[in-house]
């Protein structure tokens, strides 16, 4: 859960710092890429974490909170990454696919665990 929290908070903090620093602080070196790249890398790292901990999802008694948390975070990252793919860089498609993989694979693993 610590890694998931880090993968979630770092892109959000970079985005907030970029917005406040460039608008009010006069820091011209804070470009859009400063916020966009962590937002695109976060879901890929979450997918790796999901693959590493997929046994938690199969056992609902141990990993119920991990499963719910990673689905919520993946869905929250889906919307900004779709906009990044359309407006900033086509590489954000990888993040969108990673997020969709987390959502679909979680559903499939839970379905297999019930059977």
- Helix-residue proportion: over 70%
Form type: elongated
How many helices? The count is 5
Q: Would you count the extended β strands for me?
A: 0
Largest sheet: none
Strand content: under 5%
| CA(first)-CA(last) distance | 27 Å
* Computed CA radius of gyration, to the nearest angstrom: 16 Å
Name the helix and strand elements from N-terminus to C-terminus, one letter apiece.
HHHHH
The stretches of 5 or more residues where confidence is low (pLDDT under 50) are none
Mean pLDDT: 83
- Structural class by helix and strand composition: mainly alpha
In terms of topology, how is this protein built?
Blueprint: H1 2-23, H2 33-52, H3 54-58, H4 60-87, H5 92-114
Helix pairs in contact: 1-2, 2-4, 2-5, 4-5
Keywords:
0% strand; 115 residues; mainly alpha; elongated
Task: Describe the 3D structure.
- The structure is a single chain.
- With 115 residues, the chain is mostly helical.
- 85% of the residues lie in helices and 0% in strands.
- The chain has five helices and no strands.
- It has helices at 2-23, 33-52, 54-58, 60-87, 92-114.
- Helix 2 packs antiparallel against helix 4.
- The chain is elongated and about 55 Å long.
- The two termini are 27 Å apart.
